[in-house]
Amino acid sequence: MTVFTLLHTIISVLPVGLGLAAYARRGAIDPKTRLGRWYVGTMLAGTVTGFGFILTIGFTPGQALGLLTLALLAIGTLTLRGNWRKAGYTQTVALSASYLLLWVFLTTETLKRFPTGKPFASSPADPALIPVRIALLAAFVIGVTFQVLKIRMSTRHAQKVTTARLAA
Known about the structure:
By secondary structure, this protein is mainly alpha-helical. Helix content is 74%, strand content 0%. The longest helix has 38 residues, at 130-167. It is elongated and about 70 Å long. The termini are far apart. The model has no long low-confidence stretch (mean pLDDT 91).
């Protein structure tokens, strides 16, 4: 393992814990918080360093997903303000999707190497990874559904409070 590969791996693992901590604390990754900023920063660094492998292995589907990850991070951070944000839905879905892609990378790369000697998967296209990806997708759908319902409830509550104040 080269120094660059080790550095990329260390940087790329950080957002796993940061994202999990953000979900545990706030139910979402919010770039306005310290955890959210660290998540976005380490995701950005991990994704960008992933493009350093193009020189040795060429452009792969992993780099294509890296471009998608960069787009999701941009959407998630650039929609902090503005009318098209729609009460945080765009930001929430984009950053949650970036977390999903992080887990796709993490599980794929881990299962291609472990257990040592006889890895679970031979390549990113190995059919053995399909159940893992389905489980990740299911967790994503459940998580985003929870987040959207939470936003909707808080938005409705805020509207009721505003309406009650105007009526009084």
